[in-house]
Design goal:
Elements (H helix, E strand, L loop, with lengths): L16 H6 L6 E13 L4 E2 L14 E7 L9 E7 L5 E7 L5 E8 L1 E7 L9 E5 L2 E6 L10 E3 L4 E12 L8 E8 L6 E8 L2 E13 L4 E8 L5 E13 L3
Antiparallel strand pairs: 1-16, 2-15, 3-6, 3-8, 4-5, 4-7, 8-9, 10-15, 11-14, 11-16, 12-13, 12-15
Length: 246
Amino acid sequence: MSREVSSITRVGTSEPFELQVSRNQISYHTPLLKYGYNPLIINLNETIWDVGGLYAYPSSAVVMSVTSAAGAADSGVKVTVVGLDANYVEQSEEVTLDASGTQDTQNTYLRVYRAYVSGDTAPTGNVNIINGGTTYARVTLGENQTLMAVYTVPAGHTLYVTQGVATHGTDTSGAYMTVRFMQRAFGGVFRTATKVDIVGGEIIFPFTFPLRIPEKTDLEVQAICSKNQNNAVGATFEGILVKENG
């Protein structure tokens, strides 16, 4: 006997707003979760992402080269790239690595903030999304997905950030991590939206009144260690992306 899968809202009751958004029941609302990990942060400020160091942003929309460190061994691997075009409109495409383990995108990208393995074969090396020698995203071996706490709000949308999380691997030397949630409005400079110190464990900072982030704003999480030693830091931020004038 078949059963119809339906929302309880159809029978006069209600369910959490967040669940309705995830079920695509609220028009023009999309859930967003960005997560990043950086295993080797010392006493220099770094972005929480796979490659390390401070993240660099393209100054114009460019073709990206998707290339595997394993070369020909990863021929046929499929990778989907997600980002923004020259007008800050979100776009994505799937590329298939050629016989040399590389492939250029058909689209040009002003921003790249996510990539993942979308076929049935996992790569055997790191897959970098690059242009002109600069890496803009990396699918680290074994992850099959970028781990980058980096995002840019698409044109015509507003992001409402509801929560951030920072984690620090256990440390017995007295070192602490300073973690900052950064935002850069269109045409502006990066400024600190939230700043916390953490010694091992996890800090969750919910925003009772969600942070309103306008279109074309760059967002990232950065961290620095109080001592000259390696520390691992993970970070997430989440919220609801709302299409304006929908």
